[in-house]
């Protein structure tokens, strides 16, 4: 299947790209592709790959990036591969350029495809896309090609396409998703929670409403300057000193330019003053929680959980939204309020030569790390966790 390479976002046929909705997220949209291209560090390069059938119809797509060094500490392949490949190979790839396919940043990868495509045609398209990604990685003198933060099914799909290249499939992290489509209103949501958790949910909503705080909804481009100090305060609280108001404003000005039509900002106001916000993006019947921020001089009235959970549920958003994706981290706080965990895997392929991973070490890596997550967090998950379904077949 022919694969067409587009060397920049300006050349990308965005209508074709956005028609690929199977396996897609807001982070695979053309809007986020434009955001990521503008955010590329010096020396990095991006290409957009589109596989088309004999009639010229687009079947599947893939982003392909090359970096002189990892763009973020959490995109460092040596950190995950340590213990499953040899020390000499590990040192070599750590000192070499890196190629990342199927998206980077936002901690979510994807290989979007056209709806209704037969499984055999989808597999052929993924095979041709991954082969082209390998060629681009080789041309960039990369030592490893990485596919980060993929749902298990897509990770296995990519690993199968790279079976002849010695692909290594590793458990990486967990994303949380609120199944908001299960409930029409707040009472249905509370009834779904285990009985011991219901009083807290009602208490947190009641306290927020009794305070007189209100929630205002606005498109992102209209409120960038308003939310910038709140997000900067959150980032500084967690040690990210580079995110002053000027940088935050630049980041969300950019996202507003590319994603303004998809953005929804909920702002918590106290006597007309913004004291908290949550930025979400809408794609189809999904919402994606992107970022939040707060005025830490104001009392904490569970603003985050009211903005992310309780207000949307009470407003009946679940009638036309199936789920709210909340990304990684803060697992217990999210899951005790109903968020469900979904495992994410990463796939690594040696470019200049195979990684020669130890198969037993890979299996033990995945088994032990998924088991550790389940042991620590399953008790917080409504309905528990089916640990066996988290492991590769």
From TrEMBL:
<dbReference type="Pfam" id="PF04339">
    <property type="entry name" value="FemAB_like"/>
</dbReference>
<keyword id="KW-0808">Transferase</keyword>
<dbReference type="InterPro" id="IPR016181">
    <property type="entry name" value="Acyl_CoA_acyltransferase"/>
</dbReference>
<keyword id="KW-0012">Acyltransferase</keyword>
<protein>
    <submittedName>
        <fullName>GNAT family N-acetyltransferase</fullName>
        <ecNumber>2.3.1.-</ecNumber>
    </submittedName>
</protein>
<dbReference type="GO" id="GO:0016746">
    <property type="term" value="F:acyltransferase activity"/>
</dbReference>
<dbReference type="InterPro" id="IPR007434">
    <property type="entry name" value="FemAB-like"/>
</dbReference>
